[in-house]
């Protein structure tokens, strides 16, 4: 009987030890956090690794096309979300995301330090992370060699001396193209089509996307394109210096920064509905906080060529020297964009492409 009792006690001890070891293994297993983003999203490996190590997590990014495609995918799968968070919806699509009700509300403590101009959602379902300005970039050498002054306003672009010198992207197929269209609407309001009609008469060139506009048509990047002006980003001059094959002392391009000539894009992150388990929701909130931290915010400029919304985040030297920030960028309320976007694009198409 004593032997049987001893064997039974030994069995219980071994079972308890195995059970404890199994529980310990389960509790230390990294928790997976999935984030759906656009294809332009980038972050340094060491930055993400620091979040993973601090939170015993594994972060997985699901790149799913451009910002519009990402939002469409999130809306179509809202009843069975593919991820825990979505990053990359900007102010041109924000109202659509909010109307589709795909995000859960979360007010990060870090928002207290963020300028109110970036907080476009009072319900805190979408948290601002970065911003950038779509502007007209110009090739400095072309204007100097041709003794031609640089346009200072949208109105200047319709002058005969700039005939055929500007390439823009189709707003129906390009994010910067849409942003520039919105800049003209913010500036000219109901008469924006008159401006575009005049621009068409002045031989504006239209292409489908930014890569074609910048690397094929624009003379400032390849040096061989026919147009010395292109709709691009205010950070493009800094990128020209950073990615130059031979070191440059100055950027070969610059931005036109007159009132309303640039449109400010703000990108947001949101916790997708369905992230309801307490442990998963807590990790998602931590990642939102992390995206607003100085570590993440200081990594973004040289990864995605955008500006941090955190005012304490230091900018890289190249941004300080070569990138420009407009003092009066054009803006439109997200709800106004949502209500009129399709109509504006169709009106533009009818005037410019037909």
CATH-level-4 superfamily name of the largest domain? Periplasmic binding protein-like II
Number of domains: 2
| Rg (CA only) | 25 Å
Q: What is the class of the largest domain in the CATH system?
A: Alpha Beta
> Level of helix content?
40-55%
Structural class: alpha/beta
Describe this entry's structure for a reader:
- The model is unreliable at 1-26 (pLDDT under 50).
- This protein has 354 residues and is an alpha/beta fold.
- The radius of gyration is 25 Å and the shape is globular.
- Strands 1, 2, 3, 4, 5, 6, 7, 8, 9, 10 and 11 form an 11-stranded mixed beta sheet that branches.
- Helix 2 links the parallel strand 1 (31-37) and strand 2.
- It has 13 helices and 11 strands.
- It has 2 domains: 30-131 and 265-321, D-Maltodextrin-Binding Protein, domain 2 (3-Layer(aba) Sandwich); 133-264 and 325-352, 3-Layer(aba) Sandwich (D-Maltodextrin-Binding Protein, domain 2).
């Amino acid at each position: 009987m004593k032997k049987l009792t001893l064997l039974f006690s030994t069995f219980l001890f071994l079972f308890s030890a195995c059970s404890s070891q199994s529980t310990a293994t389960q509790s230390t297993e990294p928790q997976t956090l999935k984030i759906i983003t656009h294809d332009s999203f980038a972050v340094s490996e060491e930055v993400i690794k620091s979040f993973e190590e601090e939170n015993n997590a594994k972060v997985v990014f699901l790149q799913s096309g451009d910002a519009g495609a990402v939002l469409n995918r999130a809306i179509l799968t809202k009843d069975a979300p593919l991820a825990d968070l979505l990053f990359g919806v900007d102010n041109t699509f924000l109202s659509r995301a909010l109307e589709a009700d795909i995000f859960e509300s979360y007010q990060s403590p870090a928002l207290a330090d963020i300028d109110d101009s970036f907080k476009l959602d009072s319900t805190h379902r979408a948290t601002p992370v970065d911003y950038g300005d779509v502007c007209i970039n110009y090739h400095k050498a072309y204007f100097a060699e041709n003794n031609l002054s640089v346009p200072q306003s949208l109105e200047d672009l319709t002058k005969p001396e700039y005939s055929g010198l500007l390439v823009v992207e189709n707003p129906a197929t390009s994010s910067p193209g849409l942003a520039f269209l919105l800049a003209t609407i913010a500036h000219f309001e109901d008469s924006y089509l008159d401006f575009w009609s005049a621009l068409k008469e002045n031989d504006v060139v239209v292409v489908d996307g930014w890569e074609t506009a910048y690397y094929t048509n624009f003379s400032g990047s390849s040096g061989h394109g026919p147009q010395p002006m292109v709709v691009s980003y205010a950070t493009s001059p800094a990128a020209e210096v950073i990615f130059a094959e031979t070191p440059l002392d100055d950027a070969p391009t610059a931005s036109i920064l007159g009132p309303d000539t640039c449109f400010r894009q703000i990108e947001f992150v949101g916790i997708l509905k369905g992230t309801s388990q307490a442990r998963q929701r807590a990790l998602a909130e931590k990642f939102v906080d992390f995206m607003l931290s100085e570590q993440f915010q200081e990594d973004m400029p040289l990864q995605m060529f955008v500006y941090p919304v955190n005012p304490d985040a230091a900018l890289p030297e190249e941004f300080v020297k070569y990138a420009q920030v407009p003092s009066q960028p054009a803006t439109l309320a997200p709800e106004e964009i949502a209500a009129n976007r399709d109509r504006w694009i169709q009106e533009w198409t009818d005037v410019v492409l037909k």
